[in-house]
Recover the amino acids of this structure.
């Protein structure tokens, strides 16, 4: 059986909530449907086009999925996963960037049921509990260690 390679890029879009004194992460939600058999919470990301750089994919996908224009602060790292689609094994590698929201250009969410700013501790729990392929709670924890230098 052949293995297909799938490359994606996305980001951890974060802000500091002054009123609540907590970092918030922008998460996306998908309900369980016939075509989507598992409810999920996840970070914005998507397929890298053949002529795109990882940063270009991340900026495009975050804009398309969240309605926000963002600034990339730095690369965080990669998550690898494997899944089967239409009888073929797919090896997926997703590159993640730390991103700051600059401007909301639309509040309409196209590919998801909702987008929500979630406090960091809750975001880690949701990403752990409702992951599909990647364990995005791991990249969120890595981001937190990089930015806040704690374990």
């Amino acid at each position: 059986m052949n293995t297909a390679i799938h490359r994606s890029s996305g980001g951890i879009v974060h802000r500091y909530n002054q009123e609540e004194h907590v970092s918030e992460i922008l998460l996306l939600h998908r309900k369980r449907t016939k075509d989507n058999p598992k409810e999920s919470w996840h970070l914005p990301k998507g397929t890298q086009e053949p002529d795109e750089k990882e940063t270009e994919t991340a900026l495009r996908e975050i804009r398309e999925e969240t309605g926000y224009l963002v600034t990339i602060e730095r690369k965080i790292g990669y998550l690898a996963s494997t899944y089967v689609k239409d009888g073929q094994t797919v090896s997926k590698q997703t590159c993640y960037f730390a991103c700051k929201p600059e401007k909301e250009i639309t509040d309409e969410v196209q590919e998801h049921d909702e987008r929500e700013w979630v406090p960091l501790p809750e975001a880690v729990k949701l990403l752990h509990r409702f992951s599909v392929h990647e364990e995005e709670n791991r990249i969120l924890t890595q981001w937190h260690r990089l930015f806040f230098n704690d374990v």
